[in-house]
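[Q] Does anyone have a clean structure-token version of this?
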Amino acid sequence: MPCSKESRTKPATVDGSIRMLVLETDEQHPDDHRESGSFGDVLDHLFKKAGHGHDPPLGIETVVRFIVEEKGGSVPKAADIQDIQAILITGSMFDAHGDNPWILKLVDLIQTLWQQRPDIRFSGVCFGHQILCRALGAKIDSTPDSKWELAHTPIALTPVGAKLFNNPKDGVIHLHQMHQDHVVYPPSSSTTNLLPEQHDRDIHVWGSSAATGVQGVYIRKRLFTTQGHLGFDQNMVRRQVELRIESGSIDRVDDGPEVRSAWDTAEWEHDGVLVAGAILRFFHGDDDDDDEDGYG
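[A] Here you go.
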């Protein structure tokens, strides 16, 4: 089932909410869409669940916009984005290092908003994580040997990551992975003029897995991304693998061990709500009062 090509709003259920724009960069598997809606719907539900579980509750209103222009979407112009405090970019089967016209427009939009709207905080999942890092000059490439990182995956937290996620047990969280590309190195003042050198101390990789060194990037008051997927359930994991097998990007033989691991661990509990809660606190300005050294 295709995503709605018109922007739509999912109202807040808690007073004092922030307004998040979700830029959808792909469509759900048809069966998943029937069960849980689009990727924006899934994320809205997840963030509201995390917000209701916070003390005091944290509210969010979600505006959803599908932006893949070759599938009927449209990338907004910077001037069109009004009354928005946060932007989240979803995962996608497209390559974040690709040169599709809509991807180049998205990179330009991010760079323009980064300069013109310092009040907006950014987040991204998988493709979204990679495209935000690309817009800030980081290198995005295929993983070594083009191997897939799939399935329920432990992520070792840095000290900054441990603080962001309220010091989980053993300094590890778990998320489902679904990627063959990765951020080779995080953005910094050496990769872009959008990040002044004096802010390098506010830029952190918050975690890494055995296969992926940059599982997420945190920049104080501006950016909080994740390579792993927050909202995947077991059906979504298995169907997303099926979509990639059908498209030819995953090979049943060459990628057999990774596919079996994804299938076998799809139903395992993961920390999506925990990560959504951390990003929601960030959207609400949880780090506004940190000293100039940030979380470092």
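[Q] Thanks! Anything notable?
[A] The CA atoms of residues 99 and 105 lie 10 Å apart.
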